[in-house]
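::Encoded backbone::
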Amino acid sequence: MKELAVIFDMDGVIAHTNPYHAQAFEAFFDKYQIPYSDEEFEKHMYGKHNSYIFTHFFKRHIAGEELLSLEREKEGLFREIYKSEAKPIPYLPDFLNNLKENNIKTGVATSAPRANMDLILDVLEIRNFFQSTLGSENVELHKPHPEVYLKSANNLNMNPQHCFVFEDSFSGVTAGLNADMNVIGVLSSHKKEDLPVCLDYIDNYKNMSVDRLKSLYEQHVG
């Protein structure tokens, strides 16, 4: 049996942050008198990088220092809203302990700023489970490009084909597939039919374990 690794996206995978990102964006867009809708959030916010989100909603290209300034403002709103609400996707701590007990390497690979990742990992007290943590500042190309997952595999000294990815968004699942990894869809933000085809799908981590990952891997490569 090959040595396996597990790489987690963050928003919607480690913690169900999307409702709080929506609250932050609502306050942010109201300030700038930018129209938005729940449907637009579904298509153009969840799982997307801020450069894409701002460009879509402002209806013009947002880059450089303007992007950094707007991102600092919006993400500051999110962290203020979320810091007292943070909680993991159900049964994630049990799964992380199972991975640790079996010496499975783990990482976080998110399109979110590192400050958001730091907040969540520290408030949930799970940072010590991960040997690699990458945020938006650590890559040049964002999901669905596979860079963040390939860098994570390199950090973990793992063959990408031996890595499992847990993702909840179309762009994130696509990034994992583009990295030639084994992708598990987390149905916290989207329905199964809204995502590319994954190796498996979960609502939470209740029935997820190293034994299940090994079984899925053997079925996939067998």
Notes: The mean pLDDT is 95.
